[in-house]
Amino acid sequence: MRRSLILSLIPLVLLAGCSKPAPRVVLYSAQDQEFAEKVLAEFTKRTGLPVAPKYDTEATKSVSLTIELATEAKRPRCDVHWNNEIIGTIQLARQGVYEPYSSPAAESYPAWAKPADHTWTAFAERARVIVVNPQQVPEAKWPRSILDLTDPKWKGKVALAKPLFGTTATQAAALFSVLGPDAAKEFYRGLKANDVQIVAGNHQVAEGVARGQYAVGLTDTDDALGEIEAGRPLALIFPDRDDNPKQPKLGVLYIPNTLAVIKGCPNPVGAKQLVDYLLGPEFEAMLAEGPSHQLPLNPHTKAKLPPSIATRDQVKVMQVDWNTAADRWEESQRFLAEEFGK
Q1: How would you label 198-208 residue by residue, b for 16+ Cβ within 10 Å and e otherwise?
Q2: What is the reported pTM?
Q3: What is the rounded average pLDDT of the residues 264-290?
Q4: Could you read off the pLDDT of 306-325 as tens digits, one per residue?
Q5: Rounded to an integer, what distance in angstroms lies between the CA atom of residue 213 and that of residue 278?
Q6: Are 280 and 217 in contact (CB under 8 A)?
Q7: CATH number of 126-253+325-340
Q8: Which pLDDT band, with edges at 50, 70 and 90, does 137 fall under?
Q9: What CATH number matches the domain at 21-125+256-305, 3.90.470.10, 2.40.50.100, 3.40.1190.10, 3.40.190.10?
Q10: Residues 21-37: what's their mean pLDDT?
Q11: What is the per-residue pLDDT for 31?
Q12: Confidence class of residue 57 from pLDDT cuts 50, 70 and 90?
């Protein structure tokens, strides 16, 4: 009797051991964890589909995940890539890492935000800005262009995130593309000659200027607004927002996030669900009105932005062909490594 009972239980044990794990979506995200967690929790609440996120670090923002995705391409573990800088996205698309997906949620997005092969979609963006400590620098003396930061009066007073990573590297490639390599190199050599202070990341730039360690810095809008909303002394400047006779090709640089489905991913159905949700106007509004205050690209997104934010229709925008900027990436990285990598 006891033996027959044990034998009857064996199939149940085997079935339990072979049961498939609950479905989930694996997300590799270069977006800051504190900004992403709330919206991912809301997605799970609505769909019942858990998200397993893997985040990048501030110091190597976006770069390490890009390398990891390329390495895993033959046996992908990730379903969705949420990148916060577009050039790495273009590079991965060129390597065949992404699965083409034309999300219905992206139908009304601008044409430039959707490549012809549908391998990624650009959404919520940030701007590269100058930040100033108003307790150290009176408004009449604030820099208005990134070129102003090479002026000797700012010697040793300007902070810059290490330009080999994240949006700081993206800005360099954009300048190599828009201004041409010679003019871009002249700008960065001018910063170096002016004893620019290299720090770990854009957050450290904003924080250091707000604390008075530096008078001026180059950073992103989300990092700057975090300090401003914490009540710290920081002013935000959208550089080159008007015509610059010294360099007419300059303008405000806006850098979008991107979303892509990984080719051969474990959960393609769930991946598309997550992409559709993140591209929706409700989510862009959450990002715009949340701590990161990222600017929507979906024309149907309705959001209240901080008064210090300047949108694309309020300024002169730097006209970047992101594919050309991606072509300039290797050249800009070699140069920056020589100048700032030591």
Answers
A1: bbebbbbbbbb
A2: 0.89
A3: 95
A4: 999 999 999 999 999 999 99
A5: 37
A6: no
A7: 3.40.190.10
A8: very high
A9: 3.40.190.10
A10: 82
A11: 76
A12: low
Q: Give the residue extent of every domain in the chain.
A: 21-125+256-305, 126-253+325-340
| CA proximity to 99, closest of 112, 115, 117 | 117
**C-alpha span between 17 and 78 (Å, rounded):** 24
